[in-house]
Amino acid sequence: MGCFPGDSVVTTGAGVKKPMKDLRVGESVLALSADGMLRPSEVLLFLDRSETARTEYVTLVTDAGKSITATPTHLVLRWEKPERSQIRHANPVYAKSVRVNDTLLTVVDGSGGKLRLRTERVVAVSRTQKAGLYAPLTVDGTVVVDDVVASCYAVIDSHWLAHLAFLPVRAMAAARASLYGLVWRLGHPLQDAPPSSSRPADAVKPADGIHWYPRMLYAISDYAIPASWMDTH
User: Fold this and answer.
1) Confidence band for 184, pLDDT divided at 50, 70 and 90
2) Which of 19, 137, 174, 211 has its CA 20 to 30 A from that of 165?
3) In whole angstroms, how far apart are CA 40 and each of 48, 144, 229, 233?
4) Residue 202 included in any domain
5) Side-chain half-sphere CA neighbours of 203 within 13 A
6) Does residue 127 sit within a domain?
7) Cβ–Cβ contacts within 10 Å for residue 201, how many?
8) pTM, entire model
9) Adjacent-strand bridge partners of 64
10) What range(s) does the Hint domain occupy (predicted)?
11) Both 134 and 29 in a single domain?
12) C-alpha distances in angstroms, 153 versus 134, 161, 165, 182, 186?
């Protein structure tokens, strides 16, 4: 399973920087939508999580000093055509496949304090061993980690296919949110909508281990997905 180390930093929906190890299910973090917009995206679950597991990571450093650390088969967004602005030119590739002079998609402060996307060139690639691994899944299937845009997925080299496979998870989350909103409105008939801070979220940190849903997908992948699309090393 592809993951990030616990000291990687995400940006919450409130704009607060937070270590990955402190992230909770139900919180929102900065992500990239399919139409190329930066926006908060709810963490639905952790695909994998361990505070103690030690694993190998790849660190990619850009010419502007940003860096992202991920397991070798985690997908990051490599920008294929730096002169273009369309998000479709961002190609998810394994972190281990990124080379010096490749271009990554990053997030920087723009005018008026508004965040914007920028491409930055990779100037260094290294490997290291670190303890702890965390793999949050957001509604959008992406997450901004240490100001670098990454996919939430790993092991399979198709971000689109992985995101499609988790459609039932997103559907269940949407249904739960709709049901919660309906119940809230029945109890508060004079108010238009529940405050965002009152949305249900796990009060305790997620349990360690691989979530049952990706575990099930792994179990059937040998029969449903060509071996050439997978990389578990």
Assistant:
1) very low
2) 19
3) 21, 10, 30, 31
4) no
5) 1
6) yes
7) 13
8) 0.84
9) none
10) 1-108, 114-158
11) yes
12) 12, 10, 11, 32, 38
In 3D, which of 4, 8, 152 has the Cα closest to residue 77? Answer: 152
Number of domains in the chain: 2
pLDDT (average), residues 5-26:
94
Q: Are residues 94 and 184 in the same domain?
A: no
CB neighbours of residue 164 within 10 Å = 10
Reading the block at residue 180, the tokens are 């919660």
Kindly list the distances between the CA atom of residue 171 and the CA atoms of 7, 44, 51, 139, 154, in Å, as whole numbers in the listed order: 31, 11, 29, 10, 21
Q: Range of 165's domain?
A: 157-189
**Within a domain: residue 195?**
no
Is the model's pLDDT at 203 over the cut of 50?
A: no
Q: Is 161 part of a structural domain of the chain?
A: yes
Residues 38 and 128 in one domain: yes
Q: What is the mean pLDDT of residues 162-182?
A: 80
For residues 16 and 158, what is the distance between their CA atoms, to the nearest angstrom? 31
Token pair recorded at residue 88: 């479709």
Bridge partners for 131 per DSSP: 54
Decide if 213 contacts 172 (C-beta within 8 A).
Answer: no
